[in-house]
Amino acid sequence: MAIIEMPDWVVPSAAEPFLRDFGAVLTPFLGGPEQRINRLGTRFGLRVTLPPMPTRDKALIVQSRLLRAREDRLRMEWPQPDFDTGSPGAPLVSAAVTSGVALQLKGMAAGYQVKEGQVLAITHGGRRYVHIFSADGTVAGGGTLSASIWPMLRTPLSLNDVVEIAAPKIEGMVSPGDELSWQISVDRLASFNFTLSEAA
């Protein structure tokens, strides 16, 4: 399966992040206490609106990539407006891990600080997985960080898996289960709205 990349000049005019939660709340019908059941698989998505663009050139490229990504996967940067990610170094997973909400990192810039809510993307087996840091953290002098993340890992990670912090990207299916359409106006501008959802 190929990965379709949006050009760098494609910058959303609006993006609506959403969460796909596969857990459930059990509510007893006789009024007992409710119980939350957490399940693996919680993941992210974006509802994206692109600014109108000329149909002769840029719109054709976007149209082509969105249509091809219906059968493959689309990859684009996760928007974090007005948040300066700084220079985190070259983060890598420093130890194999099979599950949980803790991540050991290496190769980072000493003194770099991650912020609660900051987005990161982990690449394993040719696929990206979006998470957030669930607590602030400061990289040690040796470039290591024991990070708390959310949601739970949904795939085992290997030593030296790449972690994107400076420019994390989301990768997934375009408008899964829905039709894909766009508008072409009389002034020859095309407008695109689509949903990008992590598939794993």
TrEMBL record:
Superkingdom of the source species: Bacteria
Protein name (database record): Uncharacterized protein
